[in-house]
Amino acid sequence: MKGITHLLIGAGAGFASATALDADGAVTVTMTCTAAVAALVPDLDTGGLLSNRITFSHKAIRNITIFIGLLLIFYSMWNLYGQDRYIGLAIGAGIMLLSRVINKKFMLLITGIAVCLTGLYAGHTWIVMSGSYIGVASFLSHRSYTHSLIGLLYFYIMMTFFEQETALFGTQLAGTAGYASHLLADSRIFPVNKRGVKLLLPIINKEF
Question: What does the UniProt keyword field contain (predicted)?
Answer without folding.
Answer: Membrane, Signal, Transmembrane, Transmembrane helix
